[in-house]
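User: Here's a structure from my thesis project, written as structure tokens. My advisor, Dr. K., wants to see whether a designed sequence matches the one we expressed. Can you design one independently, without my sequence as a hint?
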């Protein structure tokens, strides 16, 4: 190969390899946005209640595991809750869900995709501000549901679920208080 062709080819190969390395770096804006989930990362355990029909409250005990994945680009949440039977927490599973949270940089919003063991799925928008996560969705031809999660003054995961038919008046149907049993370092 003629010597005058080697330098241009080497320069092109160097440029392509640098471009490839730069393309493999995670997007800084997404990483920064996802750091807002760090307050929830870890394993949590505690009690909850649901009351879909007023006066018919049911209690359960469960665990939630929140993990930062893909170098901090997504957060996964998995919860398994069992009906409380007397003093034992080994009743039937009443709630089993898995969620993936991410930041949609072009839209400048958080996505929250949640799946349950009943085969249901929702793709919702989430809002994060000052250590409070709010996400929700509308049940077709029915009610609007919203969940609000924060860490309270005791360091506990405190979550409420509310429903509304008109988007103005809300009725609480769910409350959960969990203690951190394992803290994980975010990715």
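Assistant: Designed independently from the structure alone:
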């Amino acid at each position: 190969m003629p010597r005058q062709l080697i330098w241009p080819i080497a320069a092109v190969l160097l440029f392509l390899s640098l471009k490839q390395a730069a393309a493999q770096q995670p997007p800084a804006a997404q990483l920064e946005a996802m750091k807002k989930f760090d307050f929830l990362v870890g394993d949590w355990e505690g009690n909850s209640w649901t009351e879909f029909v007023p006066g018919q409250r049911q209690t359960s005990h469960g665990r939630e595991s929140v993990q930062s994945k893909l170098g901090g680009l997504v957060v996964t949440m998995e919860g398994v809750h069992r009906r409380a039977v007397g003093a034992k927490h080994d009743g039937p599973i009443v709630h089993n869900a898995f969620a993936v949270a991410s930041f949609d940089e072009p839209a400048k919003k958080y996505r929250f995709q949640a799946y349950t063991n009943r085969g249901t799925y929702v793709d919702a928008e989430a809002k994060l501000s000052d250590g409070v996560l709010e996400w929700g969705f509308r049940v077709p031809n029915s009610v609007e549901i919203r969940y609000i999660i924060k860490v309270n003054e005791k360091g506990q995961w405190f979550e409420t679920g509310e429903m509304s038919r008109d988007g103005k008046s809300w009725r609480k149907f769910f409350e959960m208080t969990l203690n951190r049993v394992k803290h994980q370092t975010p990715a």
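When you compare it with your expressed construct, this may help: The first strand starts at residue 42 and ends at 50.
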